[in-house]
């Protein structure tokens, strides 16, 4: 309390002193009187033309400060607080009786509650493997879910580590870009896939590595043909066909490999026809027709349209040669 009174008195004293200084300075500056000669040479700068107004303002502010310091300060109102007893609800008669006449009750031993049994957390599912993501990608592409395909391809690219996985994901990236009409991106992806596939084939020369490199080369040929680079397309298709034929008929039990061989034969046949090599193109189409016929006989629903397309193209080519 004494400290608060001291602070109040000091504030009043400061207010009175500041008020006197401002009031007296304004009195002199306004030209109403003279307190020595100190104000005669006082330059007010940009306010010099308004010297009387500045003096009046300073005098008024000083007077206000003096009056405010001398006026008694209003006392703060203290907020009443209810006594603690008033905030507690009145006890019930039974409780009041027990307070006057306590009844002795036997003390029962207190047993601590059993500790809760914490069930072990279920094992977290392991992240998808590269093979699982690849299988999901195939399903999404068949459903034309291109947005999901793009996101899944980005994840696969981050998780690919081996040369084989890198070759697969870049080949898939090439297929995706080509389906979107982005030929430059597709060409770059296919070339990268070929580079990784060649490294895989240097380590092992099994059927899987053969088909991986042949598939990447077929992608290079498709983009080159679409861009009008026929020499590059011809070279890529011929190398891919040589790789697939190197399997020596072992693809007979793999429908996907047989279809890839049939498509490769027709891609190369079309390029040969464009070069004027119609007889060579005819031989390639006849070989493709035999493969398409076997596939359609085993699975008409899946490979029947391929056989019809090959037959129509073969008839067209034979008509050109016989005419």
Can you put this structure into words, describing what you see?
- It is built from 12 helices and no strands.
- The chain folds into 3 domains: 2-70, no CATH class; 128-245, Serine Threonine Protein Phosphatase 5, Tetratricopeptide repeat (Alpha Horseshoe), CATH 1.25.40; 249-323, Methane Monooxygenase Hydroxylase, Chain G, domain 1 (Up-down Bundle), CATH 1.20.58.
- The protein is 68% helix and 0% strand.
- It has 323 residues and is an all-alpha fold.
- The model is unreliable at 1-5 and 74-107 (pLDDT under 50).
- Helix 8 (207-226) packs antiparallel against helix 9 (230-245), helix 8 runs parallel beside helix 10 (255-274) and helix 9 (230-245) packs antiparallel against helix 10.
- It is elongated and about 125 Å long.
Note the main attributes of this structure.
Serine Threonine Protein Phosphatase 5, Tetratricopeptide repeat, mainly alpha, 323 residues, single chain, Methane Monooxygenase Hydroxylase, Chain G, domain 1
State the major sheet: none
Task: Report low-confidence residues grouped into runs of 5 or more.
Answer: 1-5, 74-107
- CATH class wording of the largest domain: Mainly Alpha
- How many strands appear in the DSSP assignment? 0
Strand content: under 5%
SSE-based structural type: mainly alpha
Integer average pLDDT? 79
Q: What is the CATH homology-level superfamily of the largest domain?
A: Tetratricopeptide repeat domain
Total number of helices: 12
| Secondary-structure arrangement, i.e. CATH architecture of the largest domain | Alpha Horseshoe
Order of helices and strands: HHHHHHHHHHHH
């Amino acid at each position: 309390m004494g400290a608060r009174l001291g602070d109040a008195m000091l504030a009043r004293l400061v207010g009175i002193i500041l008020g006197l200084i401002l009031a007296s300075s304004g009195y002199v500056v306004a030209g109403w009187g003279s307190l020595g000669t100190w104000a005669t040479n006082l330059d007010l700068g940009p306010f010099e033309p308004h010297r009387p107004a500045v003096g009046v303002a300073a005098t008024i502010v000083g007077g206000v400060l003096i009056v405010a310091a001398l006026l008694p300060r209003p006392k703060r109102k203290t907020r009443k607080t209810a006594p603690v007893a008033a905030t507690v609800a009145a006890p019930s008669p039974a409780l009041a009786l027990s307070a006057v006449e306590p009844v002795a009750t036997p003390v029962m031993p207190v047993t601590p509650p059993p500790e809760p049994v914490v069930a072990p957390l279920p094992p977290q599912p392991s992240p998808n493997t590269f093979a699982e993501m690849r299988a999901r990608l195939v399903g999404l592409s068949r459903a034309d879910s291109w947005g999901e395909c793009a996101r899944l391809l980005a994840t696969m690219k981050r998780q690919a580590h081996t040369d084989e996985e890198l070759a697969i994901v870049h080949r898939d990236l090439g297929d995706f870009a080509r389906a979107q009409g982005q030929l430059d991106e597709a060409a770059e992806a296919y070339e990268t896939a070929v580079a990784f596939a060649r490294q895989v084939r240097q380590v092992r020369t099994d059927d899987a590595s053969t088909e991986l490199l042949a598939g990447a080369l077929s992608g290079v040929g498709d983009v080159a043909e679409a861009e009008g680079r026929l020499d590059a397309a011809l070279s890529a298709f011929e190398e891919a066909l040589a790789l697939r034929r190197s399997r020596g008929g072992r693809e007979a039990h793999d429908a996907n490999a047989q279809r890839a061989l049939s498509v490769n034969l027709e891609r190369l046949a079309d390029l040969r026809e464009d070069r004027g090599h119609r007889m060579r193109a005819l031989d390639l189409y006849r070989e493709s027709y035999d493969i398409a016929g076997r596939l359609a006989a085993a699975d008409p629903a899946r490979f029947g349209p391929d056989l019809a397309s090959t037959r129509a193209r073969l008839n067209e080519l034979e008509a050109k040669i016989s005419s």
